[in-house]
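Journal club prep — side note

Before the paper discussion, L.F. wants everyone to see what a predicted structure for a comparable chain looks like in token form. Sequence:
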Amino acid sequence: MKKTIAVVGLGLIGGSLALALKGFEDFEIVGVDVSQPTLRFAAEHGVGDAVTADAMEVVPRADVTVLCLHPRGIVRFLGEYRDVFKPGSLVTDVCGVKTSIMAGAEILPEGVDFIGCHPMAGTEFSGIEHAFAEMFQKSHLILTPRPSSTPEHVSLMERMGAYIGCKDVVKTTPEEHDAILAYTSQMMHIIALSVCDDEQLFACKGFEGSSFRGCTRVAALDVSLWTELFSMNSPALLSAVDRLEENLHAYREALASGDVKALSDKLAHSAGRKRRMDLEGPDTLTLE
């Protein structure tokens, strides 16, 4: 008898996951979304094995429920369906913040496991029409299990990660995940947004180089999603932004001083750190 994975929320990540998981072991992949256009697109393009607008039709029988909603939507779903999840099942998510989500999962009854999950993949686009099965190829899959999470469920998540093409699976705490993502992802979006706030932006149209396009690529973001990500991870993000401000100020001071050697030394220091990051060898993402 087939088991069931319910993918709740068929946006870019949820749609890509439903595509990537097709054929995984003996699971049927059922996509859930409230949008009829999204469901029609999913059905027409084979996103998962089946789709439904009714979470109550699939969640009570799902062996695994993957919540691919906005962060606050995940917390609401956990509260609304806490007594509906199948006993002994696994609930997980794909959210870019973990501390708030793991706290929200505390509401789940005993016997329903929750493992926080964050595949380090995505694009600047949103919506199921941009979903593709290869989204997760060579990405890191970060897990934040609870102390009570079962080895069987952790192993299942590791096998799912391997099946969708993840480079590796890393286990860490919600707090460490959020501190790292504040620096490597959320702050990068703030930098891109800040560059686009410059009064010279439109005067430069047509003269953008690859460095400008690369820096600002993520600025055309999903506003509602990133408002939630920023606000729900504000302590860690504020710390990262404070460090950025200090580093920017140091460059401003070097420029204002007129000391060319001091500026050159600072450039060499920063460039050297980047080159060390790019050296071939074992990844430094060893949070476990």
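L.F.'s comment for the group: Strands lie at 3-8, 27-32, 50-52, 64-67, 90-93, 113-119, 140-145, 168-171. Keep this in mind when we get to the figures.
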